[in-house]
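Good day; I would like, with your permission, to put a structural problem before you. What I wish to show you is a protein chain and, alongside it, a tokenised description of its three-dimensional fold. I would ask you to consider whether the tokens describe a fold that such a sequence might reasonably adopt. You will find the record immediately after this paragraph:
***
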Amino acid sequence: MFTVEQIEAAHAKVKSGADFPVYIQEIKEFGVRSFETWVKDSHTEYVGENGYTTKSQPQYDELTVENTVDKELFVNQLKSHQRGETDYMKFCEDCARTGIEKWIVDLDQFTCIYYDKSGNKILIEEIPH
């Protein structure tokens, strides 16, 4: 089974969204099947084989997630992050400002789905692998 410490060590190598696909491959090798990250404090719940789960601690003081989604602005900020123009904290702040509450990454499907506070899917992305 994998540990939060292993995942956090892999995540520490991520400097921008451009590094995300390599990170995903690394944690998939640990046995992570999916994970759900909450924008308010970046705590993440990880799921592995046979119902195994573990959870990280909050990574920063709570952000206020807006109730209204600005999808166009979010997509523009996401693209900027994926080009390596912003760090993780800035990306989380951008998510909160544009109404993104969480994202769920499925490592079997190689998708990342972003959700609003009502549980609506705002964007489904395929992860390069």
